[in-house]
Amino acid sequence: MRRTRGRRGRRGSRGWRAVVVAAVSVVLAAAAAVPSGAAPASPLEASGAVPTVPPAGGDRPTCWFGACYDYVFGRQVTAVQGAAVSMGVARPRVDPRRATEHSLQELSIQNTGQTATVEVGWTVDRQLNHDTRPHLFVYHWVHGKTSCYNGCGFVRTSNRVRPGRALRPGSTVRLGIRRIRGDWWVLAGGRRIGYFPGSLWQGTFTSGSITTAFGEVALAKDDVPSCTAMGNGRFGTAAGSSRISAFTLYGTSTPPRLSLTSTSPARYNSGHPSARSFTLGGPGKGPC
Q1: CA dihedral defined by 202, 55, 176, 229, rounded to 10 degrees?
Q2: What predicted TM-score, i.e. pTM, was given to this entire model?
Q3: For residues 247 and 116, is the Cβ–Cβ distance under 8 A?
Q4: If you count Cβ atoms within 10 Å of the first and of the last residue's Cβ in the chain, which end, N or C, has fewer?
Q5: What are the tens digits of pLDDT across the range 265-284?
Q6: Do the Cβ atoms of 133 and 111 come closer than 8 Å?
Q7: Separation CA 104–CA 221 (nearest Å)
């Protein structure tokens, strides 16, 4: 959950309720502590600041420690062993003047105490990926502490699909998170691409409680509102906007039923809601 360079974390991540929820959190370890080959923590994360994402509601961005975040999200609170969604891949405009800004979509599962999270999604983040294309990412945090993108304990099992790879705008990806034999597996296109070992949480993260599918825009605090777009830049209420659909829960008899929230609906909103799907996006304050 969220995370911005100025991220994320994230796959924030980016607690998610106080009830304010955090999916983008903090790296209490400095970037030097990041394992070789893993995407490093952002300056914000390394500073120990803890942005929370997404908030439970509101009418403006959530700003913490020099960074702000806007969200459009669907959430369900119930005990699960996993979840999956289908989401459109877009190439949202990210303010070219602001290297700290990013735009992403993700699925996350968090425990009841909001201290453990697993995330998978796509992000347009120049600081992380060094281009303006959407890239697959995974992220997690343990005991209220964030880690790094695409590493820090993630065990990759697929040579075909790996976190960090560029995705094709206009395509649709099926992303999932499932707890299998004690580990939290990440799935893309129905295939297991790797897992976060349950041992990372010392066996304390055995069930998800808060499942969220959302769009996130990370903003520079001195430029709110931002021209960075969410989704494909069309409002969620407009025809042809980005879509999250086929929301599925695993390990529960509770039927899927998403509850939707937009933090700044004048700039980013949702539309066409159902129990398992919604559209989302927006242009921010308009062209850069």
Answers
A1: -140
A2: 0.82
A3: no
A4: C
A5: 999 999 999 999 999 999 99
A6: no
A7: 18
